Amino acid sequence: MNQDRIKDRILRRAARMWGYNELEAETSFDPVISLLLSACAAELEKLGFELESSRARIIERVLEVMFPEEVSGVVPARTLLQVSPLENNAKISLYNSFKTSIRKQNIYNPAESTSKDVYFSPSIEAKLTTAKVKYIAYADTLNQVESFFFEDAVGKAEMHIPSGELWLGIHSPNKESVEDLMFFIDINNTYQKELFFYYLHQVKVYFADKEYDFKEGYNVENEGLNLENIITKNYSDLEYIYNEVNQYYAGNFFTLKGKIDFSAKPEKEELFPKNFPNHRAGEEEDVIWLKFRFSEAIVPDILKNIRFSLNCVPMLNIRNKDIGRKIKGRLNIIPIDEKDYFLDLDYVSDDRNGKRLDIKNYDTENEGMTAMLRKGGVSRFDRRNASELLQYLLELIKDETAAFAAMGINSVNETLKQINQHVASLHQVAKEKNFTEANNPYLIISSGNETSEINCTISYWSTAAEEANNLKPGTIMTEENKGNRSMNPTAVMIQTSVGGRKKLSSQDKILEYRSALLTRGRIVTVADIRAFGMNHFKNTITGIEVKKGTKKEVSLKGGFSRTIDVFLIRNKENAVAVEESEWNYLCDSFSLKLKNASANIYPYRLFEK
Questions:
Q1: Which domains, from first to last, does the chain contain?
Q2: Which residue has the higher pLDDT, 17 or 545?
Q3: How buried is residue 348: exposed, middle or buried, by Cβ count under 10 Å (0-12/13-18/19+)?
Q4: Model confidence over 16-41: pLDDT tens digits?
Q5: Contact 307, 185 (CB under 8 A)
Q6: Which of 77, 260, 418, 594 could bridge to 497 as Cys pair (CB 3.0-4.6 Å)?
């Protein structure tokens, strides 16, 4: 209701009460009364706006209190890096860190730009090798692999290699044996992807006429949930992110099980006398040849778009940092001041014996030292945080000193005088330090011994969130040296970095809350799919349609099968702002999550409208 309408209603009500004609109410009253009523109507209009917006503020506050940091917090970007280990069959550590610099333009002064280092660390401790893919042969072509992005034709076959057959030349320096080779396999053509990966699961791999198991997944065992891990391992937010990222990229990784020794290498590979006689590649003694036998449905037009690579590892935009602190007495509160976004606590350890303080030891008594991480203060409906409450307390004590002094008791006066002195000191420090609202996480370290005094190390992970998105393939990254170097100092990014996100906005929290209420973590009905999809894609789409469909099976011998088709209606206003790589990531991750969470037995297909 606008101001004029409110004023008109007040005038009519006043005219009825005072006995005036309602039609002449405007001219019957004194002009001063008209001004007063106009001012009153303006304030009532503002009050109406506040009442209308209070609903949104109440919902926002409820969501802020109810939602844990794990759901609404930051998410690091993810990508794939190709690294080069210095030792054969060595594992990459989760603490290996690679960095690159990005330039940020000043939006207020476009002529200025600043640089920022962005860090990436592995999400899995994969076993790496010093070997690399050097040759790939199919049909009538022999290519030399210069890098992940470039191949050079070095030979033409005199006789065609049989259809569906592909040869890989693996170069191993110093003729070192290789074990559990982990291949990253991708195809450039989107339309051939489903067909190729269907038959890739059925491929047979041979070395020296011996068949080896070729399994999907990484070359390290994923430790499942067991009783010992549940009790002793500190499952953190980062562990959940690790699992999510590893599942997202697992479909492109395949492991050749077993050990390949150069002593078993035949003197002459069957590939060269038949197809490439007298070619120099057949004379290289430090190259072993693997034969991949696909179905005949995998024609040369598909094989030419395939990329094989070794030593590719999923990476997250996270960085591990260590700080040292001295712990005294029963209670210590240690703020973690981080310029980037704090992601998760790694560990808190005693420097004397390396004992973990962040994991409760059930074998000791309660007087042991423990550490607990807190984020964002206590969840309460009072909107004021610690800094605001302290500033309020400073002003309140100064204003109420006279009331306490009126009691006339010497001890009270002396106590108030000391409080005033301490408050004045705090006020001066707050003024010098420009004390403002802060929302950094902090550690609470408690001990049963009042005289305890130790030095401890606090290790935590930080991330740049969405600032690390859209780093292009081919970006060169350098290893951050932390003492023992186990990797070549340079690595190459082979996929665009995607998935980084800041904290959820109020609108996104409402979508998350709606999805949680409707689906309860289960996807059964069409409404569940819609709620899950709107929560996943957020403002990039305006709606979701779900229909029944059919599709032709990928197998040449298969018929038709039923499907559940999900049509995404893109937000045209936001379509330009979303990068193509980010949109593809959203679609792929949605398909994976939908498959894992859904109770339906029919496969899902995504379409864009």
A1: 3-66 (no CATH), 78-122+464-493 (no CATH), 132-310 (no CATH), 325-462 (no CATH), 506-608 (3.30.70)
A2: 545
A3: buried
A4: 777 777 666 666 667 787 788 888 88
A5: yes
A6: 77
